[in-house]
Design a protein that fits this description.
Layout lengths: L4 H21 L22 H5 L6 E5 L10 E6 L6 E4 L7 E3 L8 E4 L6 H10 E13 L14 E4 L5 E3 L13 H5 L19 E7 L7 E6 L8 E6 L2 E6 L5 E4 L6 E3 L8 E8 L5 E7 L4 E8 L2 E7 L5 E6 L10 E7 L3 E6 L5 E4 L14 E3 L11 E8 L2 E2 L2 H5 L5 E3 L5 H4 L8 E5 L2 E5 L5 E2 L5 E2 L1 E4 L4 E5 H6 L15 E10 L4 E8 L4 E6 L5 E6 L7 E4 L11 E8 L2 E6 L5 E4 L9 E7 L9 H9 L3 E8 L4 H7 L6 E4 L2 E4 L32 E3 L3 H28 L32 H4 L6
Parallel strand pairs: 4-45
Antiparallel strand pairs: 1-2, 2-3, 3-12, 4-11, 5-10, 6-9, 6-11, 6-12, 7-8, 7-10, 13-24, 13-26, 14-23, 15-20, 15-24, 16-17, 16-23, 17-18, 18-19, 20-21, 21-22, 24-25, 27-28, 29-30, 31-42, 31-44, 32-41, 32-43, 33-38, 33-42, 34-35, 34-41, 35-36, 36-37, 38-39, 39-40
Length: about 750
Amino acid sequence: MLLDIKTLLNRHKYYCTLRKQISAESIPWTFPRHPIVEMASPIYEQSCEAYKHRGNTSGYYYIDVDGSGPIGPQLIYCDMTEDETWTVIQHNNTELTRVRPSAGRAPHAARFAYASGDGQLAAVIGQSEHCEQELTYRCRRSRLLHAPDGSALSWWAGGPGEGRRQTHWGGAAPGSRQCACGRQGSCVEPHHGCNCDADRTEWANDSGLLTHKETLPVRSLVLGDVQRPGSEGAYRVGPLRCHGDKSVWNAAFFDQETSYLHFPTFHGELSADISFLFKTTSSSGVFLENLGIKDFIRIELSSPTEVLFSFDVGNGPLAVGVSAGFPLDDGRWHRVRAERNVKEASLRLDGLPAATQDAPADGHVHLQLNSQLFIGGTASRQRGFRGCIRALRLNGATVDLEARARITPGVEAGCPGHCSSYGPLCQNRGRCVEGTGRFSCDCGPSAYTGAFCDREVSATLKSGTSVSYALDQRAANGPNGSDGAPPSSPGAENISLSFRTNQSPALLLYVASHRGEYLALLLNKHDKLEVRYRLDGSKDAETLHSKVRNLANGHLHTVTISRLADAVSLQIDQNSKEDFNLTTGVEFSGIRLLVLGRVHDSGALDPEMARLASLGFAGCLSAVLFNSVSPLKAALLHPDTSPVTVTGPLVQSICGSTSTNPHAAEPTHHQSGQSGSVEAGRPVVNAVRGDSALIGGLIALAIFVTASALAATARFLHRRQGTCPGREIKTVKPEDGPELPLGGQTCSHNGPSENQKEYFI
């Protein structure tokens, strides 16, 4: 197997990165007993939720659940396609797998190995608000939970370690010895707690979600009734899915300078790692303080633009400060991380370079504290902090600010006003909406969808396709219209869309009024764009000709049109804007209909326009927006609640995407929230049969080939040993898709937490 030099260099970079990571993860970090010689700033976020609120989209990310604690980072898939941000942890078999009778009477047993270690799994489950795992069994003459004498036939084990034996099934409560249909009273035979226990010859289904976190994840599964003649079964254990990071949004609001929260003494004798986010409109205040007889540790906002980290371990006070160069009292979230060990102290603020201070060469190293830890204030109740603090972690452990705030006068649990910082994440006219302990993006006014209104809605059309949106019906729904958008002015309109086609001439968009007026956007026979306005029913239409050429070339083009009275502005892609002036009419009132593609009702049009209207459009349309109406989005995502009619083929696709990353596609989630019923069809499954030896042989062959290639690569890399920089940081791609371990890693000094700020200008 021959590899080119570029490939070898890319792999060299990856192995450099991997070598650094393995070396770093082998250090015995056990806080606070062992000193850390070098600063241990984590370079990865602690949850999918944290990545999302840095503006990232779905993909694979390194998750470091305990910061600089002992648990190493793991590559985990983050699904951000819904309002909730899902952490998805796979195991070795998430497919529906058939079990058939074989020799002997032993039950079928399966064990599940997860991509994350036990510590990582426990931390993810513990810090999540909700976790779930699908458990499915499809059966024919194969009982699930109970034999006729009441004895248990099948069970599964779940929870920490090897897990504890559980005798309930997905959708039922622990200890119930039932399936979901038993809880719902919908089993095919009421005296059984599961459909499969009816022991019928037809295929039946018992499935549901396991949601009790103390029993997750599923570690193993035993199926006891699979050896009788005629018995068949198929099981599926889905990936572990969790959402709601309790640490990210765990916050407290300090309304007065004299208010504070107190906790037990902070133990950071030899090493301390403190991180949190804050927002305030005050110019100064103490975030955190803990005192000893002489020693102390303190982090404060010392001025509107500076954060100060100070401490004394018996050698006299030392201070490390970071000056932001921009206001920190702007009511937006800012990130602080302070670290101290026997060698040095460091302070980081947002994405700014870290400030460091060396420890004295000879002197005391133990930080000896004995008072309570004060958050948001001081023991003297002076120079307290007014504002919000959230996501406070001490040596990798989350501090539950909300629980203490609920029982402390002058401090409120949670913090309002997230949109002041995170509002800019809502793109393409999406609106930021405040929620309890979080925010979301309302994509109603946008032609886009997704968590941040950043995913275009695209479709392919044929020449006979017509998408008609009744604008007069929308107006009849009320002053805000059916999509919550205000009515538009008759003297102005704004249009934006993207298209991809090889057809010309072609009609992209047509808007008509009750009085015979219209607006049409089309490609002429010269592959140029034309905008036709007829705003005076007694006169012919005016045609605005763009100078941009070759638009029917199969490439994606973006068009924006803006009109105010007689002034029309047109821009195509990154070309210069083209300005025009209308000479006949400026009011487009009584609009009744918007059409994409072929226009069927063209009787009132002049012959040339009627001919173009009959041609329609064949190709891709994406992110279509007319004023506040997104007809394509309505037709594809909200056809039952929108005044839209579709004639001919309309297929949703990603044809309007500019991303070429193959990992940008979202994973399919198998949802089995109901118990199911008797079915005649067989499941489509992976078979557990005797051909595993053949599969094993193929795997062995693949391993041999891979090992040979790696050996050759290793020999090449050995000659280049030592060329890696001293510090290696993997990057996590923030935009369209994930960056996988082999995806061209570089020996970079800029990790994701340094490149992206919590502060938005």
